[in-house]
Design goal:
The chain folds into two domains: 75 residues, Ribosomal protein S16 (S16 Ribosomal Protein, Chain: A), CATH 3.30.1320; 46 residues, no CATH class. 38% of the residues lie in helices and 23% in strands. It has four helices and five strands, in the order E-E-E-E-H-E-H-H-H. A hairpin with a 6-residue loop joins strand 3 and strand 4. The longest helix has 18 residues. The protein is elongated. The N and C termini lie far apart (104 Å).
Length: 141
């Protein structure tokens, strides 16, 4: 029997609440579980993630494999090492990245003028030829 550590969903529509459970790999997501060892509430700020550390260690020692989402949560909590190359869910921008974005915004605003509107278009070729035709007539008069 392959055992997984995963999240079992509770709560109503658009208001999720999860229990951290030990379940057989073949069992349905919200089906029969071997043991419930914690809870996870993503709606609270900061997110609430509680679990029984001794039971988690026991099941990890028995060879239970955490799912990707549980592995991410445990990695953020410092129980499991983060995978190499694992990115934060919403990575924060560095000061350098923010300055680059501000510089690009300034350059864009400079091209369109300070008010953000496009500069007036240059005269078309028909208008230019018409104005050139009028100039010699004015010079002779």
């Amino acid at each position: 029997m392959a055992v997984k550590i995963r999240l079992k969903r509770f709560g109503r529509k658009k208001r999720p609440f999860y229990r951290l459970v030990i379940a057989d790999q073949a069992a349905a997501r919200d089906g029969k579980v071997v043991e419930e060892i914690g809870t996870y509430n993503p709606l609270l700020e900061p997110r609430l993630f509680e679990y029984k550390k001794d039971r988690l260690d026991y099941w990890l020692g028995q060879g239970a494999q955490p799912t990707e989402s549980v592995e991410r949560l445990l990695g953020e909590d410092g129980v499991l090492p983060k995978k190499e190359g694992q990115k934060a869910r919403f990575p924060k921008k560095t000061r350098k990245e923010i300055e680059e974005i501000q510089q690009k915004t300034k350059e864009t605003n400079g091209a369109f003028g300070t008010d953000g509107k496009e500069p007036e278009a240059e005269a078309t070729t028909e208008e230019v030829s018409a104005t050139e035709a009028e100039k010699p007539a004015e010079a002779t008069a």
